[in-house]
Amino acid sequence: MTRTIAVIEGDDASPEAMRPCVELIDGLGLDISWTYPPVGPTAREQHGSLFPDRAREMIDSADTTYFGSTSGGATQALFYLRWGKQTYANVRPARYFPGARSPLAEPEGIDFVIVRENLEDMYLGIEGDLADLAPLGLVSRTSRRAVADLGEGRYAMKAITREGSERVVRFSFELARKRAASLGRPGKVTCTSKYNMLPESDGYFRDIAREIANEYDDVAFETFIVDDFACRLVTQPHHFDVVVMPNLYGDILSDAAAGLIGGLGLAASGCYGDDYAYFESAHGTAPDIAGQNSINPTATLLSGCMMLDHLGFAAESARIERAIAEIYAEGKTLTPDQGGSASTSAFCDAVRGRL
Ligand code: ATP
Question: Which among 99, 117, 154, 212 could disulfide-bond with 168, CB atoms 3.0 to 4.6 Å apart, if both were Cys?
């Protein structure tokens, strides 16, 4: 059965990583058909919109989307992939490849996954003038001051829902079970949030995680307050397996986790919902190195591996990962962020050569 992948190449340096990765995956000879939804300024010229109906239809009819980071042009497409497709679990693996440039003395064996809730928390984008909240009569739990007395200022709303929390936590436990089966050791889920200061929202997230943990006797469960977790992430990264957290913490701490394994150039990511998933590196468009053919394509390629797994091509995904591991171990064809001088294309050629 032909699998269709919609490709959005993204902005700045993103296409420089996306194109050779698509080529590399295409070269595997799998039954994949690639489509290119029109998005961004070119789509506006041709179809009158940055995200025309045609693009939405192409995303809908594809089995998945391979997305290059955007600095604006494809934001509507990204929002559609996230909120339109309800891709609530953002999976960000942090696995160390020996040879990658980690700041740690002993990074060998780091292999955990951050599951970031992807749709709610602060990312509902509900912000405004504090004065608009004054009529609600809200009073600060800490300072005891009424919002009406705070003076001029702005607010941002953080929302944690039962449905949103349950599904991302359940997803995390299922992932821990799968990893336990494939790695041959017991699984563990760590839940982190600021549940001491924010008992009504982050505490709710933690309580829901605890409830769901009771359904999974075979998976260990623990919780840490997010500041404590941040310290443990750096000092004991080997301790973790699957870590689930609300959106904002996940956004920030997954970049920190990437730092441990060699930086954003290795930060893969996939966003999963019940009916759709899309794959995009965790890093941005790397505008400062655009046009140099030097962006590290590992994150994009590893996101492509997650995509292949999702499409049922697990063996091919494993082959690419093995090839990447070999390139890092050999250390001769690494990109500048890893201390090498290889170009993006040279890195991808080296991976292809290993395949
Ligand atoms: P955006 O606004 O798109 O998020 P940004 O510059 O704020 O862009 P990133 O694109 O994530 O954020 O880049 C942060 C830094 O990391 C930049 O110096 C960038 O060059 C570097 N970087 C990010 N991804 C890679 C990569 N794949 N290879 C090499 N360097 C990278």
Answer: 117
Cβ count near 55 (within 10 Å):
25
Residue 188: φ, ψ to 5°: -145, 140
Q: Compute the distance between CA of residue 232 and CA of residue 220 in angstroms, rounded to an integer.
A: 17
> Does any ligand 1 atom lie closer than 6 A to the CB of residue 300?
no
Closest C-alpha residue for ligand 1 atom 23: 286
Q: Crossing angle for the helix pair 202-213 and 162-183, nearest 10 degrees? A: 50
> Each residue of 87-97: b (16+ CB within 10 Å) or e?
bbbbbbbbbbb
**Domain pair 1-100+267-355 / 102-114+159-261, same fold:** no
Task: Find out whether 108 and 100 touch, Cβ atoms under 8 Å.
Answer: no
Tokens 């986790």, located at residue = 257
Q: Residue 54 phi/psi, 5° resolution?
A: -55, -40
Q: How far is the CA of 13 from the centre of ligand 1 (A)?
A: 9
The crossing angle, in degrees rounded to 10, of helices 53-61 and 40-47 is 120
Q: How confident is the model at residue 65 (pLDDT cuts 50, 70, 90)?
A: very high
Instruction: Report how far residue 198's alpha carbon sits from residue 196's, in angstroms, rounded to the nearest whole number.
Output: 6
265 lines ligand 1 (CB under 6 A): yes
CB 285 near ligand 1, within 6 Å: yes
Closest CA to 66 of 25, 94, 107: 25
- CA–CA distance, 15 with 163 (Å, rounded to integer): 36
What are the boundaries of each domain within the chain?
1-100+267-355, 102-114+159-261, 122-157
pLDDT digits over 283-316, tens only? 999 999 999 999 999 999 999 999 999 999 999 9
The domain made up of 102-114+159-261 is a member of CATH 1.10.287: no
* pTM for this model (two decimals): 0.97
